[in-house]
Specification:
Blueprint (H helix, E strand, L loop, with lengths): L1 H10 L10 H19 L4 H8 L3 H10 L8
Helix pairs in contact: 1-2, 2-3, 3-4
Length: about 70
């Protein structure tokens, strides 16, 4: 279900060449994946990292880089 939501979100982006640049699109997609992982685990970073196939430290670094560190515990 989460993957379907990600695909639906990605399909709502404007066609390539219009709207956000590649790096902006990637950031939006990454934020969406992290939000979904955290939501599915009730905000637990360790569980979200495992669900997403990341090390917990990598997840924390990504959350900090994207300004999302406050969204979990």
């Amino acid at each position: 279900a989460a993957l379907e939501q990600q695909e639906a979100h990605a399909s709502r982006l404007p066609p390539v060449g219009e709207g956000p640049r590649f790096d902006e699109r990637m950031e939006l997609f990454e934020r969406s994946l992290l939000d979904t992982g955290l939501a599915r685990t009730g905000g637990c970073r360790r569980k979200a990292a495992a669900l997403l196939g990341l090390l917990p430290t990598t997840l924390c670094e990504k959350l900090k880089r994207l300004g999302m560190a406050h969204r979990s515990h």
